[in-house]
Amino acid sequence: MSEQTKARSTADALRADDKKDAPAAAGGGPVGAVANWMDERTGSAKGISYLMKKVFPDHWSFMLGEIAMYSLVILLISGTFLTFWFVPSMGETVYNGPYVPLKGTQMSEAFASTVRISMDVKGGLLIRQIHHWSALIFVVSIALHMFRVFFTGAFRKPREINWIIGLLLAMLAMVEGFLGYSLPDDLLSGTGIRAMQGFILSIPVIGTYISYILFGGGFPGQDIIPRFFTLHVLLLPAILVGLFTAHIILVMVHKHTQYPGPGRTNKNVVGFPMMPVYAAKAGGFFFVVFGITALIAGLVSINPIWMYGPYEPTMITAGSQPDWYMGFADGALRLLPGFLEFNLFGKTWSFNIMIGAILMIPILWTIMGLYPFIEKWVTGDNEEHHILDRPRNRPTRTGLGMAAITFYGILFAACGNDIIAIKFHLSINDITRAFQIGLIVMPIIVFWVVKRMCLSLQRYDRDLVLHGRESGRLVRTAKGRFFEAHEDLDDYERWALVAYESPAPVDLESATDENGVRRKSARKDRLRARVSHYYFKDRVEPVTPMELASAHHDGQAGEQIESHPDEAESGHMHGGAEEIGAAHAYGHPSPHDKQD
Amino acid sequence: MTDDNEASISKEPAVSHNESGHAVATRHDDHALPERFENPGLPDHVHRQGDNDEAAARRSERQVATLFGLSMLATVLFVVAYAVIGKDDNVTLPILGKVHALHVALGVTLAVSMLGIGLGAIHWAKTLMSDEEVVEERHTLRSNDDARADFVKVMSDGADSAQIKRRPLIKYSLGGALGLFAVPLGLQLVGGLGPFKGDVEDLRTTLWDTEVPVLGADGKPEMKNGKPVTRPRRLMRDPDGTAIRLSDVTLGSVFHVLPEGINDTEHPINQKVKASVILISLQEDRIKNTRERDWGINGVVAYSKICTHVGCSVGLYEQTTHHLLCPCHQSTFDLTEDCKVIFGPAKRPLPQLKIDVDDEGYLYAPHGFDQPVGPSFWERG
Predict the structure, then answer these.
(1) What CATH number has the domain bearing residue A148?
(2) Measured between CB atoms, does B112 come within 8 Å of chain A?
(3) Per residue, what are the HEC states of B88-154?
(4) Cα dihedral sign for B250, B256, B257, B261?
(5) What Cα–Cα distance (Å) separates residue A461 from each residue in A269, A467, A468, A498, A553?
(6) Is residue A389 part of a domain?
(7) Sign of CA dihedral B50, B54, B56, B59
(8) Partner of B350 for a Cys bridge, out of A274, A373, B175, B339, CB 3.0 to 4.6 A?
(9) Three-state DSSP class for residue A231
(10) Residue ranges under compositional bias (Basic and acidic residues) (chain A) (predicted)?
(11) Given B44, B138, B238, which is nearest A386 (Cβ)?
């Protein structure tokens, strides 16, 4: 009884401050009234105003991830439309629709319904094409976004988790794409599923079991399309959307990275607030992405399944290629030599298939997932990083990244070896051989070339800071010598070129401690020192004020020249040439700041 | 770590240390230079034309409104196109050629309707909304020490209150239960997805291993000793399903072949995947392999059409070189050398199907393949 009273009094106490006073006037008419109604029930005013004030930096490369995000939304919308007409069944049917060439053909209901969407449902073809195109754009933009993140070092602390979430999203996007592409049960995608079953069979010990589980018995059976459908429309989208949400929340929590520039530090983020600028720009960009996808879908036909016909295991078309994002795996299968398959202990080991189709993606993804931690181990750097690297300022990382892209690119090109052979009238054997050699040699060459290019660009930056830019104006001295006047960079331009860290290789600590005892970590330290040396031995340090001053000073040591009085007054000398320092008015934004 | 130096934006040169204690901009005296350049801070804001010029701003306003208006117009046109254009109408356009009129009209109008909104909003943001950059502070993500201590306390108090450390019996039995609870669900799922065929019999056999009943004059199966009389399957043309006479197979011709009676099986497609065969007539003296010659007739040989790599149809035959090429991954098989792999990622030759001629002059397969067809699998051995 007393408990009850107490409970009631507690409840009463809670109600006591239930707006006896008039609520703070919302103001702003009906909008304000709605906001007031919501806030009194959710208390969301604070959180929303925080979000609306959030600042995002501007740069074109930050839009790549945005394209992926919007493509995902477009996929969800167009995909939902498609489910209203698509029949995920392998039941046999005879086509009787309006498309004459297929009349009377035996086909699965999945294929028949896809033809119906394309031919019979008004605007259905447009939705299908939007769905397929935006899937391709989704994966492209994920890949490009990943390149941006890698080359600018945006994966460093505190963003390692988001790098890994991103990798998972990339992998899921590819799998989701493959599943969706398989659903229409046309000749090309059926051949793709057939090849996939071949891949699965190559898995040691459990390969045949997985195949039976997946296909509900022998290939192709009756189950694969309905099962793929459930995975494609329910399971994977749920995981994708969940991971994507986590990805975005972490971007909010970390606040967006920014490129180095005047006023930008590791402790701030400089840009434009969500309300109104990014609401308009990003919101508008969604419509731009959707609009361009619709335009491509309307004008460029993709996957015309009615021309391929239904899946028929005895038929095949020349030029069988998967969607682009699966191309590299298919290319790997074309390059792996047959001798990698052998019999051992009475079992068949098909490494010629397994390496490309089963092992490669997990291995590549593991390496990519570990990279932030490897680099952190090499640099020993435990700081948070919110200022992006210019790729040239990290020559080894940039070289590694480009080598990886080369590796990927060659695999991708190898997937089109038959097309290349036909278009260029070359022997397919020669092309394949060249790709096999290139796959091993080219990444090494590319790494070396790119690293040298980065170092060279860094030296160019140094030169620019030290000696200014060539003004294109010739100056003649009293003695008749000619010089090209150089213009000093202003503080803002210079900052973009000198605001980077150039880590030195870590020194090898003595292998023994102060008591002469061999330290446990000696071997690990030696490895680390070696890797660090490899990473950072070739380094170009940013110009220091001292160096700039001495560059100017050396210049003044040269001969005095006569020219326009303004220049003579204000200039510095560079190897005898006149500097026009004041010609560039400070206090104006440099061209580097115009980022959008 | 000049980046870390917040104060450097304020153009104050006096700061000498950042948080991590690195010397950032040490000055020995008034004349000495700092070790590193200092962040010059945000440049002065430059106003756009529209910020000062109302006419320019009004022009922007009109442009934005025009784009939004264009979007509405395109939306109306979409509706009109949807209503007016027939499903089967075609139209010839420059570059694109003959296209599906409704599809292109809907695509373009939808695109313009979207792009109008998008470009309008972006133009609005770029020309009329404030372009003065805003600076937001960042804070280290790490919680402060009090919060972390509190977290540890909450967790350890909770564990203490639950007595999980003091009562290992609960700890381990809970661990065991949680570790196992998914087993029934997993078992049901995996168990139900099969059926498993542990002997992988279906991967080893094809329809060619079985025979068809012989039909009597009345169209019913002939019986002998209460059992239907059977004979080996004939080679039938794919897709028309007619039997092939040896005389039909002229030199250099290619036949795509399926076993007789394949459409009477429960799942013809599952049989086609394994049983499809390519029949080719070669000059007998060019066949280098004795077995190959023996299993054929007068240079007419039959091979499995399923690639031994990952199972695509080896559908491309090059007559001049006697090569069979798989269009999926370009494995190339030489027909004159028992279909051994001469290029590409496949390892094993295509299995040969022994053929013969029956009393009526039709080709048939006396027995099935002597090895599994198609891609390799673990148990193949």
Answers:
(1) 1.20.810.10
(2) yes
(3) CCEEEECCCEEEEHHHHHHHHHHHHHHHHHHHHHHHHHHHCCCCCCEEEECCCCCCCHHHHHHHHHH
(4) negative
(5) 25, 10, 10, 8, 20
(6) no
(7) positive
(8) B339
(9) helix
(10) 550-577
(11) B138
B309 interfacial to chain A (CB closer than 8 Å):
yes
Q: Which residues pair with A258 in a beta bridge?
A: A387
Same-domain check for residues A107 and A242? yes
Cis check: omega of the bond before A276, within 30 degrees of 0 = yes
Q: Are residues A311 and A181 in the same domain?
A: yes
In this prediction, the answer to ipTM > 0.85 reads: yes
Range of the domain at B118: 54-127
Q: Nearest by CB to A337, which of B138, B305, B345?
A: B345
Asked if B194 lies within 8 A of A286 by C-beta distance, the reply is no
Residues A480, B258: Cα–Cα separation, whole Å: 93
Establish if B135 belongs to a structural domain: no
Rounded to a whole number, what is the distance in Å from the CA of A21 to chain B's nearest CA? 35
**A460 and A568 part of one domain:** yes
Both B277 and B367 in one domain: the answer is yes
Given B96, B127, B158, the domain boundary residue is B127
Residue matched to tokens 């470009």: B119
Query: For testing the chain B interface, which of A160, A278, A316, A590 should be mutated: the one with the most B CBs within 10 Å?
Result: A316
SS3 state of residue B22 = coil
User: How many CA atoms lie within 13 Å of A118's alpha carbon, on the beta-carbon side?
Assistant: 19
A395-415 exposure pattern, b = at least 16 Cβ within 10 A, e = fewer:
bbbbbbbbbbbbbbbbbbbbb
Taking each helix axis from N to C terminus, what angle separates A395-414 and A124-151, rounded to the nearest 10 degrees? 150
Residue B64 included in any domain = yes
- The domain total for chain B is 3
Question: Judging by beta carbons within 10 Å of its beta carbon (0-12, 13-18, 19+), is residue A357 exposed, middle or buried?
Answer: buried
**Sign of the CA dihedral with A84 first, then A88, A92, and A98 last:** positive
Report d(CA B355, CA B353) in Å as an integer. 6
Q: Verify whether the Cβ–Cβ distance B141 to A123 is below 8 Å.
A: no
Q: Domain tally for chain A?
A: 3
Residues B314 and B356 in one domain: yes
Residue A78's domain comprises 59-187+225-265+275-317
Same domain for B355 and B214: yes
- Shortest distance between the Cα of A63 and any Cα of chain B, in A, equals 13
Tens of pLDDT, residue by residue, chain B (381 residues): 334 444 344 444 433 344 443 434 444 444 678 888 888 889 888 888 778 888 999 999 999 999 999 999 999 999 999 999 988 888 888 888 888 899 999 999 999 999 999 999 999 999 999 888 999 999 989 999 999 999 999 999 999 999 988 999 999 999 999 999 999 999 999 888 878 777 788 888 898 988 888 887 777 888 888 888 888 888 998 888 888 988 888 888 889 999 988 888 888 888 888 999 999 988 888 888 888 888 988 888 999 999 999 988 888 888 888 899 888 888 899 988 889 999 889 999 999 999 999 888 899 998 899 999 999 998 887
Phi, psi of B300 (to 5 degrees): -90, 120
Distances (CA, A) of A424 to A416, A427, A431, A437, B330: 12, 9, 10, 20, 17
Residue appearing with tokens 């010029």: B53
Write the residue in B106, B117, B136 that is nearest to A268 by C-beta: B136
The pTM of the full predicted model, rounded to 2 decimals, is: 0.86
Q: Which residues of B touch A267 (CB under 8 A)?
A: 4, 6, 137-138
Residue B11 inside a domain? The answer is yes
Residues B232 and B362 in one domain: yes
Tokens representing residue A474 in the block: 């010739």
∠ CA A453-A458-A460, rounded to 5°: 95
